[in-house]
Design goal:
The complex is a heterodimer of chains A (129) and B (365). With 129 residues, chain A is mostly beta strands. Chain A is built from 1 helix and 9 strands. Chain A has a single domain, classed as Immunoglobulin-like (Sandwich). Chain A starts with a helix and ends in a 9-residue tail after the last strand. The relative contact order of chain A is 0.24. At the A-B interface, helix 1, strand 3, strand 4, strand 6 and strand 7 of A face helix 2 and helix 8 of B.
Chain lengths: 129, 365
């Protein structure tokens, strides 16, 4: 009897907890421009090839000033290039109106978990029309 | 006497024990069976998905053979479509304001051009090649080709894509028009005027890649793949072409605009933009953003609020991806088809999308 239970427990234990980790870092953060949250946009985190870093792109939408990477699409750790696009919806326009040109900067992403708060500099000029 | 009465009692008791299971024994057996089924079911589902993936891979393989046969017969790979208003395909990137004046004289897309080479001459003959615009913009397809464009073609549908139905004329396979980052390396003077390749507010400002295999006005030959045809994407799977008519979403409330309420329906036979800012042409994409990188989930139709979210963008419509777990199928220019992982290095991915970038890296899964 006890043998049966032990076998059953072992079978359960081996079938659970076999999930692979892809080695990517989940990233979340706030995006602000001129002190207020960016309503919509994209944050793309890519490995910096010039620093020899490799890996997939992590692309997340900004929703009400916050972006969160999807579970299967974390960012690579190490040297990365971050691209930020921000826009807002205005009543007079059908399309989202860009708030600033694509803002690019380099940074480091640690292993494990990361928080990346981005304050887009105000001197990022408003795109010409 | 006690010896006599004791025998049947013991016999009775022992026979009862032998013919019935106790509750605990039953529970243990049920638990073991449950565990085994629990182990088996995911394996069955995985086997079914791998069968669907094999079907998808075969479809993509057939289409890539069609493209290569087109090259053998006509001398060049099929162009995405041709339109005199577009810049020359030799440009690494084309970011132009598009031809002014309507309608555009866009010819048949690659998806229609390869039909005779995919054993579908009869369908090809039903298209009126001289009817002009095959595009889905500004009034939709010309009447001569509308019926055919809206007739679903299962050769372009992946079985794992649940929104690809026998009633939807969408395509799950795009030509690869190039590779690179959307704006970073654009030549000066060719950047979209507002800094975005998407969300344009002026008619016709858009960005398309012209450095790949299936290019607008393209006359690309295999020998131009200097990095090697086995290191060059030709066709790729996508899940980002909307499957349903989306004119409601795109009906712009600008009174007097010439495209108010016009039909903009994606089709496997679409040549042009499905909309000004949604996709320069609806049957090619680019290796720009990573596989499955868009977090846009419901691909059946565009968001009801119009382009109210940034996920509804030109970039979205040009991204490759699939509902197969972990990547998508991609046909290389040598005719082989591989499942490419979404964990591929983004820079290698972009190099594989562009021809003659001088980088002879190969995809090693």
């Amino acid at each position: 009897m006890q043998v049966f239970i032990v076998v059953a427990v072992l079978a359960l234990a081996t079938s659970v907890g076999c999930q692979k980790s892809n080695g990517l870092t989940p990233v979340t953060g706030r995006v602000t421009f001129k002190g207020s949250p960016v309503p919509m946009g994209n944050v793309s985190i890519e490995p910096d090839a010039s620093q020899g870093n490799k890996g997939p792109q992590c692309r997340s939408s900004i929703i009400n000033g916050v972006f969160t990477s999807r579970p299967e699409f974390g960012a690579v750790s190490g040297a990365v290039i971050v691209d930020v696009e921000g826009a807002e919806q205005r009543a007079e326009s059908e399309y989202p109106v860009p708030l600033f040109p694509r803002y690019t900067f380099k940074t480091e992403i640690p292993k494990g978990k990361a928080t990346l708060d981005i304050a887009v500099p105000e001197d990022a000029k408003k795109p010409k029309r | 006497m006690p010896a006599i009465t004791g025998v049947p009692t013991r016999f009775l008791a022992s026979s009862l024990r032998r013919t019935a299971f106790t509750l605990v024994e039953l529970l243990v057996v049920i638990a073991i069976i449950g565990t085994l089924i629990g182990l088996l079911l995911p394996a069955v589902q995985a086997a079914r998905e791998s069968a669907r993936m094999a079907t998808c891979l075969n479809k993509l393989s057939q289409l890539s053979k069609g493209c290569l046969n087109h090259e053998s017969s006509r001398g060049v790979l099929p162009p995405a479509f041709t339109d005199a208003g577009f810049a020359a395909p030799s440009d690494a990137y084309i970011g132009n304001t598009g031809p002014t004046g309507l309608p555009h004289a866009m010819t048949a897309p690659w998806t229609v051009r390869i039909l005779p080479f995919c054993d579908d001459q009869s369908r090809y003959d039903k298209f009126n090649q001289s009817a002009g615009a095959f595009g889905g913009d500004f009034g939709g397809y010309p009447a001569a080709n509308r019926t055919q464009a809206y007739t679903p073609n299962s050769a372009y549908q992946c079985p794992s894509h649940t929104n690809s139905l026998p009633t939807t004329p969408n395509s799950d396979y795009f030509g690869v028009s190039g590779g690179g980052q959307w704006t970073a390396s654009l030549p000066a003077g060719r950047r979209p005027s507002n800094g975005f390749p998407w969300a344009t507010n002026t008619f016709g400002t858009f960005l398309i890649f012209g450095n790949g295999a299936i290019v607008v006005n393209g006359n690309v030959r295999s020998k131009e793949f200097l990095d090697g045809t086995s290191k060059q994407f030709m066709l790729a799977e996508t899940r980002y072409q909307f499957t349903l008519e989306s004119e409601q979403a795109w009906a712009v409330a600008t009174a007097g605009s010439f495209w108010v309420g016009r039909v903009s329906r994606p089709s496997w036979a679409g040549a042009a933009r499905t909309n000004t800012f949604v996709g320069p042409h609806s049957t090619t994409g680019a290796a720009a953003n990573g596989i499955n990188s868009s977090d846009f989930v419901d691909t059946s139709r565009a968001p009801a609020s119009g382009c109210g979210t940034t996920t509804c963008s030109t970039e979205l419509m040009k991204t490759f991806g699939s509902y197969h777990p972990g990547g998508c199928n991609i046909a290389f220019a040598d005719g082989s088809v591989q499942f490419v992982s979404q964990m591929i290095d983004i820079n290698l991915y972009r190099q594989l999308g562009s021809r003659a970038d001088g980088n002879a890296s190969r995809y090693n899964p």
